[in-house]
Amino acid sequence: MHMPHPCPHPARHAAMLAAYGFGLFPLPPLRDARIGDWRVTRHRAGLVGGYVSGPAAAVEPFRHVLYHGRTAWMSSSLMELESHAWHVHQARGVVVVAGLGLGLYVRAAAVKPEVERVVVVERAPEAIALMRQATGFDRWPDRDKVVVLEGDALDTERLKALVARAIGAGEEWRPDYLYADIWPGLAAPEAPSQTAALVRALRPAAAGWWGQELSFGLWWREQGREEPPDMAALRAYADAVGVPVPVTEGYAAFCRDAIATAGLLRPRRRRGTATALLGRWWRLGLFRRRKRDAGSTTMPGADR
């Protein structure tokens, strides 16, 4: 595979390949930029945590964060890379992406030889213009694979026609993979149902959403289960939410590690629910993309 930029965190990449059968992915070149209320800002070196590798997993020399106002929407951090890794691994054929962000997922999917086309639907024109400016989008070697559409992915009545028209497909067309990343925080309560609505509109062969492992972990905990979930449990959850999530032994192991890292396999507390506990993590900044002081190294995962 052509890798336009070195894959960051090579040790983590190798460890993930050995443990799960998939690893991290290359980043596009990033630089600071601003358009309206959207901006990309480079933060200095710090100790960071990962999505599956736990707190204080690595020292990053720098990272870029995409902000809308004061809300962080995406970053080039280790947590971000680990959380997208499975979905990059699944990308093949024609991939439809809801949400553009920094274009990290789009770029990683486009460089894969087995990916023919990546169609991105983004509702904020400023975010589209900013991504072009901050990543050198128009100079990507695989730029011709990528179609960026301005529109609301959640307007499902228009979504299929919008995407099909852009790639010249007929009414029976369906994507090979659908990936949704349109929320500022992990395990957003509305993420499973909104992804399911996209699935009903586009009928993809396979699909997923950002943070689905933690959504699964919350569901597992609400079932009163404390033991690590297996492949059957993951398939049951996918069927329950109506999203065709591919399942492998490696991915089930990845889910278990993400859930364990989030603390969702700890014994249940006497008071409060898993949702309340996740709310506590959100207030701590563990699973939300909030702005923090650029020099802070004490809150792993606070930035996306």
Describe this structure in words.
The chain contains ten helices and eleven strands. It is of the alpha/beta class and 304 residues long. It has one domain (10-284). A five-stranded parallel sheet has the order 9-8-7-10-11, sandwiched between helices. It has a four-stranded antiparallel sheet with strand order 1-2-5-6, covered by helices on one side. A two-stranded antiparallel ribbon has the order 3-4. A hairpin with a 2-residue loop joins strand 5 and strand 6 (71-75). It starts with 9 loop residues before the first helix and ends in a 20-residue tail after the last helix.
The largest sheet has its strands arranged as 9-8-7-10-11
Strand content: 15-25%
What Rg do the Cα atoms give?
18 Å
Query: Main beta sheet: strand number and arrangement?
Result: 5 strands, parallel
Order of helices and strands: HEEEEEEHEHEHEHEHEHHHH
- Average of per-residue pLDDT values: 86
User: Could you tell me the number of beta strands?
Assistant: 11
Percent helix: 25-40%
- Which runs of at least 5 residues are low in confidence (pLDDT < 50)? 1-5, 268-303
Distance between the termini: 27 Å
Number of domains: 1
Oligomer: single chain
- Count of alpha and pi helical runs: 10
- Shape, per Cα inertia axes: globular
Given the helix and strand composition, which structural class is it? alpha/beta
Element layout with pairings:
Elements: H1 10-20, E1 33-35, E2 38-43, E3 46-50, E4 54-60, E5 63-68, E6 71-75, H2 78-90, E7 93-98, H3 104-110, E8 115-122, H4 125-135, E9 146-150, H5 156-167, E10 177-180, H6 191-202, E11 207-209, H7 212-222, H8 231-241, H9 249-261, H10 274-284
